[in-house]
Amino acid sequence: MSDWYNQDSYTELAENDIHIWLNYLNVHEARIKHLYPLLSNKEKERSERFKFYKHRKAFIASHGFMQMVLSYYIDASAGEIEFTQTELGKPSLIEKQNSNNIQFNLSHSGNIAILAVCKQHALGVDIEYAERKIEWQGISKRFFTPNEQSQLFKLHESAQRDAFFQVWTRKEAHMKVTGQGLSLAPSHFEVTVPPSPAEFIGNMKTVDNHYYKMKDIRLPDMFKDYFACLSADFDFDNITQFIHS
Which superkingdom does the taxonomy of this entry point to (predicted)? Predict the structure, then answer.
């Protein structure tokens, strides 16, 4: 599952498989001008609300990338894709363009965007850039469960920061697969802590009888400062990974 293929290696998406797509966002201005028209009117409006150009650029690049990739799977070309969303804000494709019931989830951080695609089932994906300056110790004490904190701070000091980002991507991926997003407090459920493989352990406050399968995404060596995780509500057979350019 650690192999990454170029976009020309795209193959049909099997019923119980997931495709992961990776894209570099720090692109030339000419590329941004090419991608901007692909965005929906709502996406264009959102892009205009960013105060800083670098954030607007990342939004346009990531959503333009998403539009291009989704066009491989549905009954619409890039630039014609229409979205709807749940009350909690999770986007989905409109039914008339989505005869194969394609489901997707997008995340971006730093200069990288990641997109997960499958059929029929919910999924969530998250990527985090570990070199950005944040108070990760304080965040873990505020948003991790007592057991997660205990496991994290038992690790050798040199391993704690990377483990924090792995736990955070696991939590974000789970929050997204449930469709609840930020309305599900990260301290209200528990995931495994490295070196244990990614796994959803359970909710601390409410009952959730859904099945979830979680997988850390091993990124290419050139992106060693990033961590990513996938969560889905079905027992997927395989992940195929592509780099889009």
Answer: Bacteria
**Collapsing DSSP states into helix, strand and coil, what is residue 217?**
strand
Task: Summarize pLDDT for 104-114 with one digit per residue, the tens.
Answer: 999 999 999 99
d(CA 58, CA 63): 8
DSSP 187: G
d(CA 59, CA 32): 10
How many CA atoms lie within 13 Å of 154's alpha carbon, on the beta-carbon side?
9
The domain in which residue 115 lies consists of 4-244
Q: Count other C-beta atoms under 10 Å from residue 8's C-beta.
A: 7
> In sequence order, what are the beta bridge partners of 92?
84
CA distances from 43 to 39, 40, 108, 115, 117 (A): 6, 5, 15, 17, 20
What's the structural domain count of the chain?
Answer: 1
The average pLDDT across 172-200 equals 95
- For the chain, list the strands marked E by DSSP: 4-6, 17-24, 83-85, 91-93, 102-109, 112-119, 123-129, 189-191, 200-203, 213-217, 226-232, 238-244
Please list the residues that pair with 215 across neighbouring strands. Answer: 230
3-state secondary structure of 116: strand
Specify whether the CB–CB gap between 81 and 91 falls below 8 A. Answer: no
Residue 50 near residue 58 (C-beta atoms within 8 A)? no
CATH number of the domain that 13 lies in? Answer: 3.90.470.20
